Amino acid sequence: EQARDAAEEAAAIEEAVNVVADAVATKRTNAAANAVRANATEARRRRRAKHRRTLNNFVSQTWGNLNRRCINGTHPKWNSRNLRSLKNGLRLELTRTELHAKVVEAWPVIPALWGAGQKVVLRRIDTRGPVSVANTRFCSLRESNRRTVLETFARRAAKAVIDNPEINRAAPAVPTTPVMVPTAADPLNAIMAPVTVSWINTIG
Predict the structure, then answer these.
(1) How far is it, in rounded angstroms, from Cα 184 to Cα 67?
(2) Phi/psi at 163 (nearest 5 deg)?
(3) DSSP 8-state class, residue 179
(4) pLDDT digits (tens, 9 = 90+) for 15-64
(5) CA of 165: how far to CAs of 151, 159, 162, 183, in Å?
(6) For the stretch 83-94, what's the b/e string if a residue is b when 16 or more beta carbons lie within 10 angstroms of its beta carbon?
(7) Is residue 74 a contact partner of residue 67, using CB atoms and an 8 Å limit?
(8) pTM as predicted
(9) Spatial contact of 62 and 93, defined as CB atoms under 8 Å apart
(10) Which of 198, 156, 201 is CA-nearest to residue 181?
(11) Alpha-carbon gap, residue 174 to 80, rounded angstroms
């Protein structure tokens, strides 16, 4: 009887050892499979990112976005993102060949901005003008948003001065004609067209 009990105990121990060994092997197999899947996903992501950030693909993406945002584009898209531009009658007066030339001119800096984590956009110098060769420049999305805020504030200040006779008498007129000067804040200005500077009059 003691021998039988010892044999049963030995069998139970062996079974427990086998279960643990199987679990460890399964865990290692799952970890290896997960690593393979992760490596494949990362490689796929890098290939796609490399394709997205080539010159020709950047031209294609920018050209497609312009045709969706402009009223005379090949496929204007009336969604929430493009609605304001389409309602304002934004016109595309830029050919794909001209866009390609602008990208080639700015290309030494565009990849550097991407490497710094910046998104590059084609911005109009005069936001009330068309999309044309002379009225567009490449800059980072952060710089574009900053300039949009400044220009909006300047237009509101100018409107307040014009609408309020007392302020209009007390303060000098706000210039409405843009002056084109380069700025060192944006590295693209070294090779691209200068930008519009907005004025903000200090009142009081």
Answers:
(1) 31
(2) -75, -25
(3) E
(4) 877 877 777 777 777 777 677 778 778 777 777 766 677 899 899 999 99
(5) 23, 11, 7, 34
(6) eebbeeebebeb
(7) yes
(8) 0.56
(9) no
(10) 198
(11) 33
**Sign of the CA dihedral running 128, 129, 135, 141:** positive
Q: Which amino acid is at 2?
A: Q
Task: Give me the amino acid identity at 165.
Answer: P
Question: Residues 152, 153, 158, 163: what is their CA dihedral angle, to the nearest 10 degrees?
Answer: 100
DSSP for 103-149, written as a single string: HHHHTTTHHHHHHTTPPEEEEESSTTS-EESTTEEEEEHHHHHHHHH
Residue pLDDT, tens place only, 93-112: 999 999 999 999 999 899 99
CA neighbours closer than 13 Å in the CB half-sphere of residue 97: 0
Task: Identify the H or E element spanning 1.
Answer: none
